[in-house]
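FIELD: query
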Amino acid sequence: MSDTTYTPAPDGYDGAYTARLWALLPELYRSSDSQVLGQTGPLQELVARLGAQVAVVRRSIDRLWEDQSVESCDDWALPYIAALLATNLVDGLDARGQRLDIANTIDYRRRKGTLGLLEQLAADITGWEAKAAEMAGRLSRTRHLLDPALGWPPTSADPTGAAELQRASGLVGTLTRTPRGGVADLRSAAGAMATGTPFDEYYHRADVRTPRGTTGWYGIRKLAVFVWRAASIGVIEATPVAVGNCPGHFCLDPTGRQIELWAPRKRSSSSYGENWVSPDALVVPGPISNVLWDAVAAAGQPEPSSADSAYPVPGATFYGDGQALAVNYVDPTTLVDPGQVTVWPEVGRFLLAPSAGVSSAADIKVAYHYGLFYPVGAGPYDRRQPGVQLPITASPLVTVSAGPPGSPTALGDALSALDGQGTVEVTDGLTCTSLPALGAPGAGISAICIRASRSLPANRAVVRMPQGSGEWVIYGAEKDQAPASLRLEGLLFSGGDIVLQGNFSDVIVSCCTLDPGSAGDLLNPPQAFASAVDGTVLAPVHLFVEGTVERLVIERSITGSIRTSSGGVIGSLSVDGSIIQGLASQVPGGPAVPGPTSFTAEGLYDGAGLLGLLSGPGPKSPLVAFLSAQLATLVAGSDPTTSDLLQLLNNLVGGPLVYDANLFAGVALSRFAQAQVTAPPPTGEALAALNYLLLTEAFPVALADAAIACTTGTATLTQSTIMGDCYLHRLYASNCVLSGWVVAQDTQDGCTRFSAVTDGSALPRPYECAVVPYGEPLFVSTRFGEASYAQISDSADDLVTGPPGPILPSVLTGAETGSEMGAFCAALAPVKARSLLVKYAEYAPVGIIPFPVPVPGPDPDGERQRALPWPST
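FIELD: result
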């Protein structure tokens, strides 16, 4: 069930030429090469290496004709063809971008300096959608006699088409009718909201500063290239969630979150050249505002009633295949009348009219688009990777429909029917509401795979357990049996924890989303987790390992915390291209208190393990011995329980300062905790919060709200974002963002390279790492479901600290490939931006200063994250 690297079919050249060279040698040398019959000797090994090189030459000769064309040549020939054309080839691009660049060189040069070419360059070189805007044309100025005359909007029908001609010529704004260079017309709400965006119809004073963030845009020589770097991901079919206490209202997201609705990307390679038209707001992949939605919906009416209805998408509709939203009945599968649907795209909700006859969310299915900076987690995107073959999973293969016309329990029924081995493939994206335990104690699984359909168009398998349904337990093999294997692929799981018991050889979580939860409000009322539209608490999904897992692989996934419990062991943890978030299970005790002031059952992640450590036999550390004596006194000779342990912990939290240098001698405390214990101890709730923090850092596996709590085995993190604290035994991290405290017990082994780390973390051998203070806003958003979730803020480099020197490592460009650190490293956004500027230096008009502007706009000060609830300490 492991991934296999793709290799081309053998051509036999290596063996053939090795045999021919070997036959040319005298028999004397061949016979004396090896004393063992049939075993290769050193001379034959040397001849085999020579034969392999001859095979390479033969393959090159066979491909000489193909290597003369850029469409069919090998990648190594691209720079040579580029040199023949004298094109400025960008080294940082992949083979696709370089091949497009060379193939279109002549076409590029014929249209050099035009806005259409600059937008096409962005699409060909980076794969992004773009809109080029000459900022000289957005400067306010006084009109003169050479300007064409502009009349007032006609009060009746305009048979001459003068108004449409003025709009098409750019003499007046499409929405606002603001004259070119003139005073802004504020009567259009849609036009006013477009200020400072690519579709701005207003005019501005000159700004001579260097373009940076939202400043320095407007000038005669400046050319803004607005680029949409995020992906608009289309959900083919999903089950909406009914909004509580609002009959007829539904939420599009199957987890019950109110997310932004995005427009799909509609431009293709045929949209450039002779067919080029500057894109409007519904062609580019971006969020849709309520005002824009209403304006476009009104554009299809025969007689528009306001200026907002005049939008350049005549007859536009959002209902149908490939559009922003489609609402269908499940049975029969007919499209709902658009007149029966009222949509609020900014919160991802819609209202069905009573005449639609819908009684529950299970009666309908929806299709929509949502935004994410780069495809990761469970999503309806192509999960294939170049050069990597999707693994062959266990048989038999059973295909099911998770929802109607099947059943919301069809997936669980198919899993129950398997005899511990097989693959269940979900063919739709509707919501499953029930999953049985896989296996049983003493009769665990042997090889199980649960995956979304691999056929295109892709979908995701959605499981939303009802609130209070408990854990989803998966039993592996017993100690005397062969270890089991488990693979989850393309699964969106929400509503409970996943618990692994027994022995596993491999557990692979690929392109999945184990709901990381959403932080709640701290004040009105104070709550640790937010709630969905139907009242379900959006608590995180924890992946608990209570057995033995030799290899746990998390690849291109979004998960809640990963933890060991009840003596569980993870031999090796591999996290690649993923986001792991650990949320706090409690809110702070007060406005001026840095953390919780008491333990609860929800925050006792491994009470049985901690209880066994305190009450079990054997030598104990000073702190464990102290707590063991306190626990023995509390229970007075009887067997302690988890409730007794919880009472002991809260007694310690509410008492005097628990810190003592001798007791905490072997505990790696965070920089914040060290500063608190060395200063005069606080009092009241602040003292309780400090005691709480000291105990969680002393016993992180059992008590800490961590993203990863696994103090056994080796953790290998590659191109991943960890939002929360990490407690590990041995660590190898590369191109990662570790935004919380990281404590590696074995700092003599392992390494941390090209990563963003928190100041004061206990890390092994850091190399080219960017150090940032704890708690600073590295991300635009830390709320799962938002389009900017886990995206590094444009101001992240301003937070990097270090010794005085000329250059500090960069979070935005400090990865090994020159890309940003973290889970979106593979997107190569900084590399693509630099490559685009290199090409613009060749094709932009002389004297023009092009600068890319990411859309949605930058968040230079991190205001959005600072407004979010308090994170875990």
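FIELD: remark
The two ends are 38 Å apart (CA to CA).
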